[in-house]
Design goal:
Elements: E1 4-9, H1 13-25, E2 28-34, E3 43-44, E4 47-51, H2 56-60, E5 66-68, H3 77-89, E6 96-97, E7 102-103, E8 108-109, E9 114-115, E10 120-121, E11 126-127, E12 132-133, E13 138-139, E14 144-145, E15 150-151, E16 156-157, E17 162-163, E18 168-169, E19 174-175, E20 180-181, E21 184-185, E22 190-191
Parallel strand pairs: 1-2, 1-5, 2-4, 6-9, 7-10, 8-11, 9-12, 10-13, 11-14, 12-15, 13-16, 14-17, 15-18, 16-19, 17-20, 18-21, 19-22
Antiparallel strand pairs: 3-4
């Protein structure tokens, strides 16, 4: 049985990690990567950069699934714009979950979100559209994460926390239970 094809949009470091998750998940065949014009024809790991943003409409005719593989560290503005663009074109934006992650059957994860290796998403957690739940992140029970957020490597989001849209939570930070998080938590910090 052939796998559904998926287009990866953004060819940087985060794309490398998502490629590994997609390969491990085994549901999709990577059709190619969309990046900047100057990189068309180059390769990202074993996959060819087959187009740039202006090609998204034409590529949709050959591949109806896409995931945003551009990261979110300093700003997520372009990541959000790309997500909205591909959604408007009509692409399906599936949830990508590593088979090495644990996601409770009682959790809800919205379209376009990627859950990386060894992440843990506990019961009654709700994660919005186009989020990155990075390697070894812990999302505890009853957490609500808005759209377009990045929960970085080994971050801990404790029970009942609300993370607002467009928030970046840095690596190894801990967000104390019941906190409300808006915009940014510095890596390695404790947020109360």
């Amino acid at each position: 049985m052939s796998k559904a094809k998926i287009l990866l949009i953004g060819g940087g470091g985060h794309c490398h990690s998502v490629i590994d998750v997609v390969e491990q998940q085994g549901i999709y065949e990577i059709y190619g990567i969309v990046d900047v014009l100057e990189k068309v024809g180059s390769r990202v790991l074993d996959y060819k950069v087959i187009g740039y943003d202006d090609d998204l409409i034409d590529l949709f005719q050959h591949c109806p699934n896409a995931v945003i593989t551009m990261g979110h560290i300093k700003s997520n503005t372009l990541r959000v714009k790309l997500f909205e663009t591909v959604k408007q074109i009509g692409y399906e934006l599936p949830t990508i979950i590593s088979p090495l992650a644990y996601v409770s059957r009682h959790a809800q994860i919205s379209p376009g979100t990627v859950v990386m290796h060894q992440a843990l998403v506990n019961a009654n957690a709700k994660i919005g559209d186009n989020c990155i739940i990075n390697t070894k992140a812990l999302i505890e029970h009853d957490v609500s994460i808005g759209n377009h957020c990045h929960i970085a490597t080994a971050a801990v989001i404790n029970g009942g926390v609300v993370v607002r849209d467009n928030t970046f939570v840095g690596s190894n930070s801990v967000v104390v239970q019941e906190a409300q998080v808006i915009n940014f938590v510095k890596a390695g910090s404790i947020y109360k």
